[in-house]
Amino acid sequence: xxxxxxSELKKTTLLVILVAVWxxxxxxxxxxxxxxxxxxxxxxxxxxxxxxxxxxxKAFDMIDAATKARFPGVAVRWAYTAKIIRDKLAKQxxxxxxxxxxxxxxGEEGFTHVAxxxxxxxxxxxxxxxxxxxxxFEGLPEGIERISxxxxxxxxxxxxxxxxxxxxxxxxxxxxxxEAVVFMGHGTHHPAGAAYPAMAYxxxxxxPLTVVGTVEGFPEIDQVKAELLAMKVKTAWLxxxxxxxxxxxxxxxxxxxxxxxxxxxxxxxxxxxxVLKGLAENPQVVDIWLDHLATAYDRLN
Length: 301
Ligand code: CO
What we know:
Layout: H1 6-26, H2 29-32, E1 42-48, H3 54-70, E2 75-80, H4 83-91, H5 99-108, E3 113-118, H6 125-136, E4 146-150, H7 157-169, E5 180-185, H8 195-206, E6 210-214, H9 221-231, E7 235-240, H10 247-253, H11 261-267, E8 271-274, H12 283-298
Parallel strand pairs: 1-2, 1-3, 3-4, 5-6, 5-7, 7-8
Helix pairs in contact: 7-8
The structure holds cobalt (II) ion.
Cobalt (II) ion is lined by residues 186, 216, 248.
């Protein structure tokens, strides 16, 4: 060898290796991990309050199919926010994850980007909780890098107009022009509960014989009754403004107890015709949720 001796060459090689190792260490956790950078894996998590009623659960199957059709090849997972319902189903041998457990599992399965879609009606307390959970699971070591949260059904005036149109187009054909339509929302004391009187306004613009009330918020059944009496209607259709026709729709709306809406209004001289069909059973309504999911999914990039 001329010029550089053997030992000199070894020193140079060693120096090159040291510099390379140092540069890799500086490149940060994405490069320094054992397996190098994770391949991007996108997924969808659909989150609902949940239901223990089979018929209502079928509506979720429809949403599942619609989601898979709109996002072909993307894994779709489900979570229920209601612990009471998850516990009830667990006793029947059906295990459904909470949002936190579902996100932990997805992180473990190597999902790097997850769009979480709220199937709630309004951005109330449950949506706030879901947002907090999604935020907590984003960016954990070896977990999901990016989580994007889709808005619930009613996230603004455009959604309200679309929702009213979809729901009114889906009214029973037997409803006559002089018969009222009462929509029962869940209701809340969260500020987002203002969506219910806002929806009442939007419905009324399209159909003057519509009324919106809630089980646990404003407006209440007494206000619904007063409005119906002022309209001097003889008949009212009772329709849930909830994702599924579950416990509230079957009992508080259409049940036989003295304090059900059906009983209260019947006693006031109004003939009631309950319809046990949830919003999730209306494909045009499901499209609103899926549009919000598409927005959230696009934000993953
Ligand atoms: Co309730």
